[in-house]
């Protein structure tokens, strides 16, 4: 079966500054895949490449077997429109209610009429436990609720693949655990593939089916596998140190 994502010999750079090189990995359909590594190693940069915001210096990214950059502009936009993204902080539009935040995407990208849009908004907010908050502004709800609202917006267009950048950043341990449970529920109910940048160990071990570990010095992947398996069997001190740290 074709992997949902296939990354071949990817090198990423800002100008002359190479961030990571020779990255090779695949993400299976329906998998929760974690991109991990210490601060500044290039996790968010990789995520920005996977969602088509940045163009590789070398190598290619295949989505369902189709190269993201070796294709037409229209085809690339079509691929990108089938993915949902939750950036750090939730990134909701603060001048709009939660309902309006979702509605904007539906108006832009679908032909749904007003009644259908309201039904989708109610359904997506109910999936993340925010049914009663449709008319609230982001500033009127908690940080954990804002993350969930961002999640509702990320799934507004029924994406096949979801990308999350540090979803539990800034959350207390309880909200973080609730968000992990929600991510698992969404994977099961939507059947979506989920790619998460994270350095939160509790979250990595709870939701991760598979993972890569980026190293800032070698500037490439130094470990691949299920996080629990890496913890038990990796012999690389950098990986073990990361997976057993206490902060
Ligand atoms: N737009 C940019 N232009 C130039 N350099 C950048 C840009 N964005 C990030 N970088 C650099 O690329 C490197 C990787 O950054 P990136 O944010 O991808 O790392 P990260 O692993 O996600 O870090 P963190 O865990 O701290 O969020 C860093 O050295 C950063 O300074």
Automatic annotation (TrEMBL):
UniProt entry tagged with the keyword Nucleotide-binding:
yes
Pfam families given in the database record: ABC_tran
Q: Which GO terms describe its molecular function?
A: ATP binding; ATP hydrolysis activity
Q: Which domain of life is it from?
A: Bacteria
User: What PROSITE patterns does the database record attribute to this sequence?
Assistant: ABC_TRANSPORTER_1, ABC_TRANSPORTER_2
SUPFAM superfamilies linked to this entry: P-loop containing nucleoside triphosphate hydrolases
Q: Which InterPro entries match?
A: AAA+_ATPase, ABC_transporter-like_ATP-bd, ABC_transporter-like_CS, P-loop_NTPase
Give the UniProt keywords, A-Z.
ATP-binding, Nucleotide-binding, Transport
The regions listed as transmembrane in this protein's record are: none
SMART domains assigned: AAA
Q: Which residues form the ABC transporter domain?
A: 5-243
Q: What is this protein called?
A: Phospholipid/cholesterol/gamma-HCH transport system ATP-binding protein
């Amino acid at each position: 079966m074709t992997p949902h994502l296939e990354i071949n010999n990817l090198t990423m750079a800002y100008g002359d500054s190479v961030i990571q090189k020779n990255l090779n990995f695949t993400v299976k359909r329906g998998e929760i895949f974690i991109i991990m590594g210490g601060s500044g190693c290039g996790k968010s940069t990789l995520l920005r490449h996977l969602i088509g915001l940045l163009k590789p210096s070398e190598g290619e990214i295949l989505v369902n077997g189709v190269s993201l950059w070796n294709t037409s502009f229209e085809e690339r936009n079509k691929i990108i429109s089938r993915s949902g993204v939750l950036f750090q902080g939730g990134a909701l539009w603060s001048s709009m209610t939660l309902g309006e935040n979702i509605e904007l995407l539906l108006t832009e990208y679908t032909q749904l009429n007003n009644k259908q849009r309201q039904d989708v908004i109610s359904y997506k907010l109910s999936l993340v436990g925010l049914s009663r908050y449709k008319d609230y502004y982001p500033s009127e709800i908690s940080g954990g609720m804002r993350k969930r609202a961002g999640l509702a917006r990320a799934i507004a267009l029924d994406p096949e693949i979801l990308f999350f950048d540090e979803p539990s950043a800034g959350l207390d341990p309880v909200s973080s655990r609730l968000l992990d449970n929600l991510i698992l529920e969404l994977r099961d109910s939507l059947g979506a593939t989920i790619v998460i940048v994270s350095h939160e160990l509790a979250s990595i071990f709870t939701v991760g089916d598979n993972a890569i570990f980026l190293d800032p010095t070698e500037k490439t992947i130094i470990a691949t596998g299920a996080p629990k398996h890496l913890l038990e069997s990796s012999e690389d001190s950098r990986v073990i140190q990361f997976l057993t740290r206490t902060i």
